[in-house]
């Protein structure tokens, strides 16, 4: 994975800016996965090629994108991005940001179970 990281000063600065200005839904998600809460280290705002991944678990090669309402109009760009990452062996889980605020706790439980399933499926053998 390290060979796919974009280590340019511009990418580094953009990622740093995004980390310091996380959306409320990104903060909610970060609170659920930080400090290896699911047995995997997640990193925030990781530059990969021309993209910055919202969250990335290198051990499982899994990207989690928290999609705001603007993503409805960006489905073609998101699909191209997902293909680019898939070509690098990175799977993408897209979570609608509003699902992190749903008053029905089953929605959050659904996404956490899906995340745990993907992490287990994609984990490198010990």
Walk me through what this model shows.
The protein is α+β, with helices and mostly antiparallel strands. It has one domain (about 1-120): VSR Endonuclease (Endonuclease, Chain A, 3-Layer(aba) Sandwich), CATH 3.40.960.10. The protein is about 40% helix and about 20% strand. The longest helix has 18 residues, at about 105-120. The two termini are about 20 Å apart. The model has no long low-confidence stretch (mean pLDDT about 85).
Largest sheet: 4 strands, mixed
State the helical fraction. 40-55%
Alpha-beta content class: alpha+beta
The first-level CATH class name: Alpha Beta
Q: SSE string, helix = H, strand = E?
A: HHEEEHEH
Write the layout of secondary structure elements.
Layout: H1 9-20, H2 24-33, E1 43-48, E2 51-57, E3 62-67, H3 75-87, E4 91-96, H4 105-122
Parallel strand pairs: 3-4
Antiparallel strand pairs: 1-2, 2-3
Question: What labels would you give this structure?
Answer:
126 residues, globular, Endonuclease, Chain A, single chain, 4-stranded mixed beta sheet, alpha+beta, 4 helices
């Amino acid at each position: 994975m390290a060979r796919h990281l974009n280590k340019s000063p511009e990418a580094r600065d953009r990622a740093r800016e995004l980390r310091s200005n996380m959306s409320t839904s990104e903060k909610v998600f970060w609170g659920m996965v930080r400090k290896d809460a699911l047995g995997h280290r997640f990193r925030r705002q990781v530059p990969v090629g021309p993209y910055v991944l919202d969250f990335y678990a290198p051990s499982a090669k899994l990207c989690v994108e928290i999609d705001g309402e603007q993503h409805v109009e960006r489905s073609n760009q998101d699909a191209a991005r997902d293909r680019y990452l898939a070509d690098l062996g990175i799977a993408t889980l897209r979570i609608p940001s509003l699902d992190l605020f749903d008053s029905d706790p089953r929605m959050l439980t659904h996404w956490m179970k899906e995340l745990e399933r993907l992490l287990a499926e994609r984990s490198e053998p010990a």
